[in-house]
Structures are given as C-alpha cells and as structure tokens.
Design brief:
Mean pLDDT: 85
Low-confidence stretches: none
Radius of gyration: 19 Å
Structural class: mainly alpha
CATH superfamily: Tetracycline Repressor, domain 2
Number of domains: 1
CATH topology: Tetracycline Repressor, domain 2
Helix content: over 70%
Order of helices and strands: HHHHHHHHHHH
Largest sheet: none
Length: 201
C-alpha cells in the first residue's frame, strides 16, 4: 500500500472513531510510524486530510450504491441493500466525528448533504419506478415520494438529530425506512419485505 493510501485509510478510521478536531498531525505521524513531513507531502494540512477523508467516503459510498442499482433483484431488495450500505458506513462513525463535522467543518457536512441529496434524486426514483412496475409499490407520484423520502433522510441523518436524540443511526434509519415503506408497499410488496428480512436473519 502506498504511503498516501496508508495515511488516508488510517486517518479515516481514527477520525471516525475519535473525531478529528483534537487529533494532531504529530499524533498521526507517531501512530503511523512515519515522519510528519511524509504526511504533509500528500496532505499539506489537517483540514486537507479531513477533506480527503470525506471525499474518500463519498466515492466509496457512490460505488456501493451503483453496484446495488445494477443488481438484478426486486426494488424492495435494493432498498434493503441501500439501508445496509448506510448502516455499515455509519456504524463506524462516532458522536465525536459528528460533533466535529457540525461545529468545525460545516462546509464539509454541507458537501455530504449535497451528495446524498443528489444521489438520492438520481437513483431512488428509479427504484420507486421499478417497484411500481413490479407491483410492489402503490401507484403514487414518484416526485412526491422522493421529496418525502429525501426530506426524512436529511432530517434524520444529521449530526443535530443524532446527537440530540436517543436513537442510534441504525435505529433511526431502520425505523424511518419501515415507516416510509409501509406507507407505499402493496400486499405483494409487504410480503416481499417480510421474506427479505427473514432471509437476512
């Protein structure tokens, strides 16, 4: 593994676990067992390193979402797969990271928010259309479904909500998905959801 990738991977895991505001470049260099000069060669500041960590997260998430959308499975399975992707990513993120994002780099949180909104608008509509064609989703206006879905996710998957409520990320998203899905699933869709959940357990 090249030094740049090694630094990025280590910083991502450490920042997600411990936050980044109180983590110094000296600490990173010591734990990586490399000189601070080597880190600065690729990342001229801690702010630039944090920005690269965010970009890396978004790139990885985008690739995983694309792979889900390309699967030859029903729309309910795709929704559940997307939930799994979000859960696996946010399981690694601590309250310290969320606080640092909210209070110290709000522009990066805005970047994440713009990414997820754009990604959902581009892809969730396709899944809704697929689900309607499969008889799994009720005939509802896709534009309205997308606004409801995206607005809900934006409100829930935010540092402010997660830090000020008793829900974990996984609990909040899972509950929201269930509420939203149950509002649009046909009987066939509800049975498909139950069967999919049983298979995952």
């Amino acid at each position: 593994m090249e030094d740049k990738d090694k630094i990025l991977l280590f910083a991502r895991e450490k920042f997600f676990r411990e936050g980044f505001y109180k983590t110094s470049m000296d600490e990173l260099a010591r734990e990586l067992k490399m000189s601070k000069k080597t880190i600065y060669k690729y990342f001229p500041s801690k702010e630039k390193l944090v920005e690269n960590v965010v970009d890396n997260l978004l790139e990885e998430t985008s690739g995983k979402i694309k792979s889900v959308l390309e699967k030859n499975v029903d729309a309910v399975s795709k929704i559940l797969d997307l939930l799994g992707i979000l859960s696996n990513i946010f399981l690694k993120i601590s309250d310290k990271w969320l606080k640092d994002m909210q209070y110290n780099t709000p522009h990066l949180w805005a970047k994440i928010d713009a990414f997820r909104t754009r990604t959902m608008y581009m892809n969730i509509g396709k899944i809704f259309e697929q689900g309607k064609a499969e008889g799994l989703f009720e005939e509802r206006p896709v534009e309205l479904l997308m606004v409801i879905f995206i607005s809900s996710m934006r409100a829930i998957v935010s540092p402010e909500f997660l830090l000020n409520h008793k829900f974990s990320f996984n609990e909040a998203v899972e509950q929201a998905f269930q509420i939203l899905l149950n509002g649009i699933l046909t009987n066939k869709g509800a049975n498909t959801l139950k069967n999919s959940i049983k298979q995952d357990k």
